[in-house]
Amino acid sequence: MLGPVILAASRSDKMRRFISAAPGTKQVVDRFIAGETVDQVVPIVKDAAGKGLEVTLDVVGEDITTVEQSYAARDAYLQLIERLKDLDLGTRAEMSVKLSMFGQALEGGHELALANVRPVVEAAAAIGTTVTLDAEDHTTLDSMFAIHEELRKDFPQTGCVIQAYLFRTEEDARRLAAAGSRVRIVKGAYKEPASVAYQDKGEIDKAYVRILKILMDGDAYPMIGSHDPRLIAITQELARRAGRKLDEYEFQMLYGIRGDEHVRLAAEGHRMRVYTAYGTDWYGYFMRRLAEKPANLLFFARSILTKG
Length: 308
Prior knowledge:
Order of helices and strands: HHHHEHEHEHEHEHEHEHEHH
Strand content: 5-15%
Strand order of the largest sheet: 1-2-3-4-5-6-7-8
Largest sheet: 8 strands, parallel, barrel
Helix content: 40-55%
Number of helices: 13
Shape: globular
């Protein structure tokens, strides 16, 4: 039951300061965060391409408080796209964005986030790639889905993320599957109340499979965000039953986790995309990675205890 405690800590400024100052933090952060700058992440994209992998790039940082910060987030993605264009890596990398980082939670945030993300989506399309809108806590989802629908009018390849632990997600999946959307399905990594989300891991896994079946049987392009070997095997079986070819869905896994599995799936002919986060504001992303898997937390604790 450590997950909810860690997720609560992800919103604590006091814990942010403590963890940032801990001697072993950098060692563990470097496992999950590819770097702080575009220059540091470009070699990782090149290396992935050489292994037959693709990436989705996330500039971390979501708890903004000013309009100016939302503009800076937009510009960070535009800078990334320009670098990918210069290096002819556009077809190997897509972008993932959190609309909170683009101003969604500010006054007039829905319109602000849409105005900020649109030029990013346009620039991505111009170099042959696309953008996926990440899911955040349940209070933001109606706005996210509305922005997704608006962007798809001009850029139908724009993707979105759904979270299996939310009760609403099966209905969202049916709507998205009917619309032929690109949809990444994940279990969910925010602290959500029992009134809106499953709390039991077994129930979340069952919901994940039900939702995955909806996507596979519909017109969506499913993007399976999971490291769970059992769910990977179920995905392959559901794809086979649905008559899907290997390029009609893809697997997505996090940078720093199960790297050998990334390569194995790609070698089998699957599309395999590595979710690669970078930037200086890593705390919230890092804490959610700890919450997802106890082994990550133990690794972090050992690193702190053995440094000093």
